[in-house]
């Protein structure tokens, strides 16, 4: 699996005092360098416990944890934690410190000099999309979404290789959450951290994770793989029921159009003869034909309008919806079922790439 | 104007105040010193008790029980109880006054530290604070508004109680009140009462100001 592992849990168990059964027992988990792993499962599955054992907010009862090859349990906890970013649902900003002081927390603990800290704070504010005017304010003066951005900036401040996130977007409203998720994905593209992300929201886990681990009560890993693989082949009934309905659609949301088998479809160059256009329409059994010129999609014309005069003289109408290669198959499906022509045209920067129809998309799901 | 108990005399004898300015200043100083020493000692002892209570949780209940018991003893009774031990002097007064501050200050110290939000502590741990630096840089500053609120109540209460030490021959402004009552001299009583109230108010405002200075963040919360 992950050749270059960043976090490695070996036979990790945790039994809380006064509890008969372990919260986590004998867990093995490996997270690759730069990988974004989501831990998801029902409450009591030990996902949060697992996360908090990595930075020893919760001390494991037994087992071994290696971070970048280093034994986490043999390192002083405070030292270990300064090299691991940590974001929690309640954010936990320090109310008595300004936003810039909050962000500068770990650099301060590490003893960076003033100028370096200031530069870093400026950089981070830009990175997480905060208004620099907020820097001198106190946390209570910010909205929930803004606070969580500060929380992320604070976690990233000393540029730790590892980021642990415990339901970080759980406390904000759905619209802001969606926004923060997208922002965070874009951010992760730039910083490439090794992220372990706990959520109870399976859709969030699917959306964000390079891989997702589905945990069952007692910290049992039921399945650990890429979301599209899990959606396509749930390991067992537990996984299947936890993924919920519309598995096919969820999977479509993850697959890019570019990787699907596209067809050329009823499309001809404007230099073709009307006869060519008729032939294509007959082959494809459509009553319209798409026109391209030097590879660029011009639009479509009604079959009835194709007579004997050159195609160049026709006035093509634009496709209302076109997709690009990195659009999801789910949006392609949407285009197919809502468009008149029952196809999704794929265009990258004006250049026609091909088209998908219902049959093509269905093939991707059942593959 | 009709004076106390039917006497006919001016309510405020300004001439008396003028003649006794020196005494008023001395008694102001005495009042302030007794208050400051008692609250100061109370704070020091309370810090010790709070450290014990925070460290060993089970001790908190007995500590509040004992300080609570001290708090319920009437002040005159406590002065009297202390006479055979320390005599009739300032030490007696300070011991009694200090013992009254303990319950309030200990309670607010512990409540202040306990009131620091759990997510803040977890975040501080997660950022890599050591146990000790977390206490000094997170818990203490965040508890400060509640701690100062405790000192504020203790101080205002003590300003009032100092007047009772007049029975020990001390009393700050209480000296005027006691003397005035004995001699049916209205001016002296009023001077003692008014100045006590003014002093308590000034100290109260002082603490509000101190709290804003030490915890600017707690004020800007919208």
Which keywords apply here?
A: 367 residues, alpha/beta, Rossmann fold, CBS-domain, 6-stranded mixed β-sheet, 4-stranded antiparallel β-sheet, 35% helix, elongated, B: 222 residues, mainly alpha, MetI-like fold
Account of the 3D structure:
The complex is a heterodimer of chains A (367) and B (222). With 367 residues, chain A is α/β, with parallel strands linked by helices. Chain A folds into two domains: 5-255, P-loop containing nucleotide triphosphate hydrolases (Rossmann fold, 3-Layer(aba) Sandwich), CATH 3.40.50.300; 258-366, CBS-domain (Roll). Chain A is 35% helix and 25% strand. In chain A, α5 (114-127) crosses α6 and α11 crosses α13 (329-338). Chain A is elongated. Chain B has nine helices and no strands. The N and C termini of chain B lie far apart (52 Å).
CATH architecture grouping of chain B: Orthogonal Bundle
Percentage of residues in helical conformation of chain B:
over 70%
- Mass-distribution shape of chain A: elongated
CATH superfamily of the largest domain in chain A: P-loop containing nucleotide triphosphate hydrolases
Main pleated-sheet profile of chain A: 6 strands, mixed
Main sheet: strands, sense, barrel of chain B = none
Spatial gap, N to C terminus of chain B:
52 Å
Output the structural class of chain A.
Answer: alpha/beta
**How big is the Rg of chain A?**
26 Å
Largest interface: A-B, 27 and 23 residues
| Beta strands of chain A, count | 16
* Average pLDDT rating of chain B: 91
Average pLDDT level of chain A: 91
**CATH architectural arrangement of the largest domain in chain A:** 3-Layer(aba) Sandwich
Order of helices and strands of chain A: EEEHEEHEHHHHEHEHEEHHHEHEEEHEEH
Question: Can you give the helix content of chain A as a percent range?
Answer: 25-40%
Which fold name corresponds to the CATH topology of chain B?
A: MetI-like fold
Structural class of chain B: mainly alpha
Instruction: State the helix count of chain A.
Output: 14
Count up the domains of chain B.
1
What is the overall shape of chain B? Answer: elongated
